[in-house]
């Protein structure tokens, strides 16, 4: 790993704040930004740590740049957010601090500012998160993070179990780090995650949901797979969701349900991963053994209910719960058996976006890494009809043709014509529709 990095990618605001504070006290780029830069990546957000106490940093910035907007939401923890425009890029400035004891499992009871970087590094969670970079681009390594970054190890700073006990959110942060690069948990840190996992009960449900969502947004499938496997191997899923333990114990004729759910999630684009993760979660209550094989009739509907409840408990936004639940409820089509008319029906019923989402989910479920191109081509061919997929007539047309008053019967005829058009899209013209309306009306009679 380099001991010197290039700072050219630092946005001008970061540079300006950094230079201003560094004139007065040691000020470093820290956290994920330092970690990413050293790995040769462009950071997503930029965190600075400074030897100035918060009030001194603020006074300095106010004096030199009255036009900067300062946010004080985290100032009791030493963090001030600096931005130039309401929606513009921002930089977080945190004063070096030493944490007192953690009493509530979330926050230190006291913090002390005006300490050194070495003390600040010691209160950070993992060694690779405790690296710093100075204005010359030199790496400052107070706790051995560089060697761990080189080795791809996520290692707690200090005694791992103690660190997880003082703030159990770090359990999630450890696993989420795995999803961000070629990392694995160092052995003692992994053992501490396993031992301390029951403490996740004290972490607010929505925080856990946020961590899970961030983890599933991982860019590299291989890293995501490692993070999900760690959650599995260390027993975190079982603590998070009792349903998970039930699925894990359920017999199947093929792959275990939990393994299959994880593999499906990894094979999907990030937006569909929650659906992949939970698509078979309800199988245990549907399991029946017939002729030597396990069957799970009705599992999509049960899984959809369970998925909604599981995401609800982690306070996922209502819309997301519903979206995932819908996808899970509708997964598991035998796409190869669908005729062009069936594809058109699905297109009309759920819309193109959901159709392709279901196709992608089912392809991943099938084990193949979502090569859906052949089926996509079939869908496109099926819906490429000359006169559209909605019947080319109105309710008034139907009333005129059949001498009907407005009412339910008109709706029934239109519904029939929609079905008919899906089967005969090339005949979606006035005259043919009229004939079909008359034929059908005669056939079903006066009921
Ligand atoms: P990301 O790429 O997700 O932003 P990050 O490492 O920058 O990752 P942040 O949540 O932005 O994570 O936190 C910035 C830094 O603050 C971390 O790198 C770590 O040094 C420290 N930190 C954050 N949360 C904790 C915590 N719960 N305990 C100890 N240190 C923490
Ligand atoms: Mg960050």
Describe this protein's structure.
The protein has helices at residues 12-22, 31-38, 54-64, 117-122, 145-151, 160-166, 169-178, 187-196, 205-216, 221-233, 236-240, 242-248, 257-266, 273-278, 299-313, 318-329, 340-350, 352-365, 373-383, 395-402, 408-423, 430-444, and strands at residues 27-30, 47-50, 69-71, 79-83, 90-95, 97-99, 111-113, 131-133, 139-141, 153-154, 184-185, 288-290, 293-295. It is of the alpha+beta class and 447 residues long. The protein has four domains: 1-151, Beta Polymerase, domain 2; 153-240, Hydrophobic Seed Protein (Orthogonal Bundle); 332-383, no CATH class; 395-444, no CATH class. The strands form four sheets. It has a seven-stranded mixed sheet with strand order 3-4-5-2-1-8-9. Strands 6-7 form a two-stranded antiparallel sheet. Strands 10-11 form a two-stranded parallel sheet. Helix 6 packs parallel to helix 8 (187-196), helix 7 (169-178) runs parallel beside helix 9 and helix 7 packs antiparallel against helix 10. The longest helix has 16 residues, at 408-423. It is elongated, with a radius of gyration of 29 Å. The chain starts with 11 loop residues before the first helix and ends with a helix. The structure holds adenosine-5'-triphosphate and magnesium ion (MG). Magnesium ion (MG) binds at residues 31-32, 45, 47.
